Structures are given as structure tokens and as C-alpha cells.
Amino acid sequence: MTASSEALARKLTAKGLATRERIVKAAAELIYEHGAQKTNNEQIRAATGVSGSQLTRHFPTKESLVRAVLAWQADSIVARHQAPELGELDSFAALRRWADSYIASRDMLRGGCTFGSLAAEVVKAEPSHRDAVADGFERWQALFKRGLTKMRERGDLRPEADPSALAHLLTAAFQGGALLDQAAGESTPLRDALYGALAYIESFAAES
């Protein structure tokens, strides 16, 4: 969430916050289905039941709504990566569970990564969104980097393992695999990409 949107949220009543959240969730779903360019105010109003004045009060411009959706999608990705069964993503087993949870999901076949799909669309069409896209990816990669750093400090990974580089590898494998899954209509590409990335990380395992 941006500083301006946080300031606005603090001024809203509980009812206003609920309305804003409903708008963002509906917009996120519509954008995931149709893309940002093909999602309009009429569709969002129909999905949420808000008036045009309510929508404009919360999001005066299309840009402000897209940025809110980007932040919401990034929050969702981060929350999913902090599921209790994954812990701190600081073990080979946790990383494997993370990969398996996405490989088993049908979401990748439906429309790819929720955050990555929107990021790919807007980063070229609207350069002003580049900072919001970069922030989302940085927050995501920070989770991997923190877990991998703990593994290296604990001695699970050899000292030459670079947590930053390995975090980039995991997110790149995920994004590429998700896109290929969407194109192929089956989950083999994502499985191969993630298992390949995990195999490379495991090649840095310290000898027991």
C-alpha cells in the first residue's frame, strides 16, 4: 500500500474501509480475468454494487485503482508465502512444500500468477507503475532471501551460496513456469522450472 493510500485509509470509517476493500477485491478479480486495459468502472460497479460517486471517491483515477490492486495482489502473495506450514521458508523441506502447493494449484492454468500477470501488463503500458511493481517483487524476494540467509547461517547451505541470487532464481522460475503453464494448459512447465531451481539450490547443501 502506498503512503497516500495509507493516509486515505486512516481517514475512512469502518464502513468506508469495507467498501474500499470490496472495490479492490472485485477489481483484482476482473483485472485477473480480463486485464487492466479491458476492465472499466461499469464492470466494477456491477460487481460491487457501489455508485459511480463512491467509486470515484475512493479511486479518482484508473491509475490509483490499478496501484491499489497491485498492492493488494502483492499483499496476497506475501501472505500465501507466510502460511504456517511453510514457516520461514528456511529449509529444503519448506521450499519443496512451497513449490508443491503451487504445482498442485489450478490457478496457474487459469491465468498465471495474480501479481506477475498484472505486473507484466502495466509495467510497459504505464511506466508510472514501475515502482509499485518493483516493490511487490522486492517484498516477495525478501521472504526467500531471509529464509535462505538463515539456511546459510545455520550451515544448511555452504558459504558461497548467494541468498539474493537464489531468491531471484526462485521468483524467475516461478514467473516463467506460471506463464508456460498458462500457455500449455497443464502444470508440467511450472513443476520442471521450480524443481530445477530447487535442485540448483540443493546443490549448495553443506556436506553432512
Shape: elongated
Please give the largest β-sheet.
none
Secondary-structure-derived class: mainly alpha
Approximately how much helix is present in the residues? Answer: over 70%
Specify Rg, calculated over alpha carbons: 19 Å
Low-confidence stretches: none
Count of DSSP helices? 11
According to DSSP, the number of beta strands is: 0
Q: Termini separation (Å)?
A: 44 Å
Beta-strand level of the residues, as a percent range? under 5%
The H-and-E topology, N to C, reads as HHHHHHHHHHH
Average of per-residue pLDDT values: 88
Describe this structure in words.
- This protein is mostly helical and 208 residues long.
- Helices cover 75% and strands 0% of the residues.
- The protein is built from eleven helices and no strands.
- It has helices at residues 3-11, 14-34, 41-48, 52-58, 62-81, 92-103, 107-111, 114-125, 130-154, 163-184, 188-202.
- Helix 2 crosses helix 5.
- The longest helix is centred in the last third of the chain and has 25 residues, at 130-154.
- The N and C termini lie far apart (44 Å).
- The relative contact order is 0.11.
- The model has no long low-confidence stretch (mean pLDDT 88).
Itemize the secondary structure elements and their pairings.
Layout: H1 3-11, H2 14-34, H3 41-48, H4 52-58, H5 62-81, H6 92-103, H7 107-111, H8 114-125, H9 130-154, H10 163-184, H11 188-202
Helix pairs in contact: 2-3, 2-5, 5-8, 5-9, 6-11, 9-10, 10-11
Keywords:
0% strand, 11 helices, 208 residues, mainly alpha, single chain
Give the structure's gist in a few sentences.
With 208 residues, the chain is mainly α.
